[in-house]
C-alpha cells in the first residue's frame, strides 16, 4: 500500500467505525487495513483511532486529521481528472451561508444539483456567525453584508434589498407608523452579531446618506430565525432582507411599513481561499450558486 491507500483505509475505518466492515468494503484483508492505519499513525506521530473490543472511534487528533485527509483525497481525484472533462465530479464540498438563505433558496434547489453530480457530498453549515473559511476548512462561503477579510477571493452575487415589517397584531396594538417621528411610539426588535453589542436602531436613507433612529425594544437577538420569529410574535418592527420576508408578506403574517425609509441594501458575496487551481467541484458549485442566487436577487430589486 502507498500513503494514499493508507489514507483511504483510515477514512473508511473512521466512517464505518470498524476495521472488519472497512476491510470488506475495500476488498482487503482486515490485517492489511489495520497495518495501514498503524503505519499512518506512525507517520503522523499521533494516535488517530481509539480501539476497543466493541468499537473504533476517532481521537480528537483523528477528527481533525480526517477532514484534511478527505480534502487531500478529493483534490487528488480532481487532479487526476482535470484533463478529462467528461469525468464525473466527486468528493466533498463544505460550504457556509446564512440559515435563511440556506432554508429559503439553496436547499430547495439542491436535489437538482446533486442529481446532476451524484458523486458529490455536501456539508452545509447554515449559521449566522462569521466562520473562518481557512481555519475551519470551508471550500466557499456566502456572506451577506460588508466584507472584512481582503485575503479571500470575492465573487459578488448581487444585493439583498431591505424591507421594514411588523405583524398585524403588533400594528393593531401600536398603530401604523407613517413617518420617522411616529417611531417614538413603536418598538424595534434589535439584531446584533454578538449579544452585548449595541444595536444602531432603525436605519434609513435620508436622501443623501444612511442614518439611524435610536429606538426602544424589549428583545435583542443574534440570529435571523429568532429575528423573524420575534416580529411574527408581535414584539416589534424588524428590518430584514425582502428575500427572507417574502413568504410572510405574501401570506399577510407580516406587513410592510415605512416603505420609503429603508436600510442600506446588503451585498451578497461568494468567498473562497486563494488557490492556484480551484477544484472543479468547487467551481461547479459556485457557478450553480451564482446562477441560482443572482437572478433571484435581481427579481426582488
Automatic annotation (TrEMBL):
It comes from Stenotrophomonas rhizophila. One of its GO terms (biological process) is DNA-templated transcription. PANTHER family: HTH-TYPE TRANSCRIPTIONAL REGULATOR, LYSR FAMILY TRANSCRIPTIONAL REGULATOR. Residues 1-59 form the HTH lysR-type domain. One of its GO terms (molecular function) is DNA-binding transcription factor activity. It holds the Pfam family HTH_1. Keywords: DNA-binding, Transcription, Transcription regulation. InterPro entries: LysR-type_TF_proteobact-type, LysR_HTH_N, LysR_subst-bd, WH-like_DNA-bd_sf, WH_DNA-bd_sf. The keyword Transcription regulation applies. This is DNA-binding transcriptional LysR family regulator. It comes from the Bacteria. Belongs to the LysR transcriptional regulatory family.
